[in-house]
């Protein structure tokens, strides 16, 4: 009888720990799903889609595309949307071809509208219309892409400990200046970790825990 009671108790304890382990895995999975959704939301919020020439114009020969581009701030992760009719296209070219309106050795050519160009890296990119003499008529745009800024931890204010001035010495000599104040400077971290990296690290750790 005692053995039966002990076996029953052991089974209840084993079942309890199994249920606890399952609940823990479910909780971890919920956290991981929440973090993944947060990363996706962050990417959506950060990225901006720019319709070329909008709102007063478009990808055509009548819009001042140079003024439009210079009034925008393009960041890595943004997108360019070119909307045009069947008589136009979008050709990405080098700086030399941009200046001369040449289409030789084009980086890419898109003939269907709308054309979405992802700005995946910092630098300057050049786009022209390769049809007829449209580029010479002003249908060209230069896009300067800057790196996405990463928030950093501000440095705490410096603290200084004032020292007592040295009393003047007797005689014609002028009083010696007080020694320089000493303080403790707290340097900020050498590099800031983006939210995306933190979330990715936590996802990896979470999956590792689930495998245990």
Could you name the key traits of this structure?
single chain; 212 residues; alpha+beta; 5-stranded mixed sheet; 3-stranded mixed sheet; 4 helices; 10 strands; 35% helix; rod-shaped
Task: Describe the protein.
The chain is 35% helix and 18% strand. It is built from 4 helices and 10 strands; from the N terminus they run αβαβββαββββββα. It is an alpha+beta fold. It is rod-shaped, with a radius of gyration of 32 Å. The strands form 3 sheets. A 5-stranded mixed β-sheet has the order 2-8-7-4-5. The protein has a 3-stranded mixed β-sheet with strand order 1-3-6, with no helix packed on it. Helix 1 packs antiparallel against helix 4. The longest helix has 45 residues. About 13% of the residues have low confidence.
The structural class is alpha+beta
- Summed over residues and divided by their number, the pLDDT gives a mean of 76
Shape, please? rod-shaped
Number of strands: 10
Question: Order of helices and strands, N to C?
Answer: HEHEEEHEEEEEEH
Low-confidence stretches: 41-45, 180-201
Radius of gyration: 32 Å
Q: Major sheet, described briefly?
A: 5 strands, mixed
Distance between the termini: 37 Å
Per-chain topology:
Elements: H1 2-46, E1 49-51, H2 65-70, E2 74-75, E3 79-82, E4 90-93, H3 95-100, E5 108-110, E6 115-118, E7 123-128, E8 140-146, E9 159-161, E10 182-184, H4 195-211
Parallel strand pairs: 1-3, 2-8
Antiparallel strand pairs: 3-6, 4-5, 4-7, 7-8, 9-10
Helix pairs in contact: 1-4
Task: Write a compact overview of the structure shown.
The chain is built from 4 helices and 10 strands, in the order H-E-H-E-E-E-H-E-E-E-E-E-E-H.
